[in-house]
Amino acid sequence: MDARARPLLLAAALLASTALPAQAQAPKLKVGLMLPYTGTYAALGNAIENGFKLYLTEQGGKLGTREIEFVKVDDESDPAKATDNINKLIKRDNVDVVIGSVHSGVAMAMARVAKQSGTLLIVPNAGADAVTGAMCAPNIFRSSFANWQPGYATGEAMAQRGHKKVVTITWKYAAGDEMVGGFKEAFQKSSGQVLKELSLPFPNVEFQALLTEIAASKPDAVFAFFAGAGAVKFVKDYAAAGLKKNIPLYGTGFLTDGTLDAQGADAEGVLTALHYADGLNTPRDNAFRLAYAKTYKLQPDVYAMQGYDAAQMLAVGLAATKGDVTKKAEFAAALRKAKIDSPRGPFTLSASHNPVQDQYLRQVVGKENKSIGIASKALSDPGKGCSM
Ligand code: BEZ
Questions:
Q1: How far is the CA of 25 from the centre of ligand 1 (A)?
Q2: How close is the Cα of 226 to the center of ligand 1, in Å?
Q3: What Å distances lie between residue 372 and 127, 226, 266, 364, CA to CA?
Q4: How far is ligand 1, taken at its centre, from the CA of residue 126, in Å?
Q5: Pairing of strands 120-123, 140-142
Q6: pLDDT by residue (tens digit) across 93-134?
Q7: pTM beyond cutoff 0.90
Q8: Residue ranges, CATH 3.40.50.2300, the chain
Q9: Which of 84, 86, 200, 243 is the most exposed place for a label (fewest CB within 10 A)?
Q10: Mutate which of 103, 144, 275 to test ligand 1's pocket (most atoms within 8 Å of Cβ)?
Q11: Is the Cα dihedral 252, 386, 126, 69 positive or negative?
Q12: Rounded Cα distance, 325 and 30, in Å
């Protein structure tokens, strides 16, 4: 090589190694997954993560041009640890967005911190009414439901099916209280009577004394909220106590969702209302279910679907802000006008950022929560106390 050309080549090589590429690569978006990975709700947390990651994979590993890095925390469904857990994600791990959680008590603590810090929060299950009610904020969204919604829809369905006198039974915390509240509102509107409201602390599963009280009250039906491992035990204990053949069991759909393999024949015939069901047989849901089953060798449930939609909602906001989650007003505006193409059916968000959605009436047939109709069409939570 001509000796005079060498310095020129060297300079060019140096420039190439130090100059920024024409299109600088945005850093990965840090997503904090704050979910239960142990305890009664562990299966629910795992399903949400699976659903979220399935959507991400379908988008080639990016949401709105940003690659994603996950930071995970097991919240143990423990409200007492929730403030510390979310603060660690925000302050120590510097996450850009938090996805969580399952338990209403945990979600309320998270919403408090998110509201104060302005951190973007998408709730992929927990139904605490206050999260999209009195605690609502421009940076807080939900891909799931408010507790009032499935409770109200179940109350309407039970009244329509001619039940007059019921006993309610649930865990004593926000989710149970609020689902029973929604149920009573609809059921009493149709002159239904609530004979007794039974409860036990979360996650206690010693149901025997309460089942004896149900039998003694002689209701014409029972309304129940339990979920995860607690729902499995309740449905089995209800049947074992001999109640199932005489007193029809109803509940919000969590009673039989993701639990049917373990509940077996004891769940057969149980009626529930929820914003998702098996056998919807729409092209969108069929594609989701096939992809989920192929990826995880499992059937999806409501929790997986809500995780999937949390990722879809994040993608909508990221597309509108070109990946910049600090543009909060643009992020929120995009979601407020979006129609989310969910496997449950398309939904929009209410003014308080909660899904406006159909509630399906479902009946357990074998291993499926078969949709047998719509319990409440386009049901919107009132979002009580929300102003933003
Ligand atoms: C809740 O705590 O909000 C909840 C937990 C499991 C299923 C449904 C709701």
A1: 39
A2: 8
A3: 24, 22, 19, 10
A4: 5
A5: parallel
A6: 999 999 999 999 999 999 999 999 999 999 999 999 999 999
A7: yes
A8: 29-145+279-353, 148-274
A9: 84
A10: 103
A11: positive
A12: 11
What separation in Å is there between the alpha carbon of 101 and the centre of ligand 1? 9
Distance, CA of 151 to CA of 127 (rounded, Å): 11
Which residue intervals of the chain are DSSP H helices? 6-18, 42-58, 79-87, 104-117, 148-160, 174-189, 208-217, 228-240, 260-263, 283-296, 302-320, 328-336
CATH 3.40.50.2300 fits 29-145+279-353, yes or no: yes
The Cα–Cα gap between 33 and 72 comes to 5
Q: Crossing angle of helices 228-240/42-58, nearest 10°? A: 130
Distance 28 CA to ligand 1 centre (A): 31
Extract the tokens encoding 301. Answer: 């449930």
> Which atom of ligand 1 is least distant from the CA of 102?
5
Find out whether the beta carbon of 126 lies less than 6 Å from any atom of ligand 1: yes
Strand order in the sheet with 29-35: 62-63, 66-74, 29-35, 97-99, 120-123, 140-142
Probe residue for ligand 1, chosen from 123, 143, 147, 301 as the CB with the greatest number of ligand atoms within 8 Å: 147
Instruction: Write down the pLDDT at residue 5.
Output: 46
Q: Is 53 in the pocket of ligand 1 (CB under 6 A)?
A: no
Superfamily of 148-274 according to CATH: Response regulator (3.40.50.2300)
Residue closest by Cα to atom 5 of ligand 1: 103
- Give residue 372's pLDDT band: very low, low, confident or very high (50, 70, 90): very high
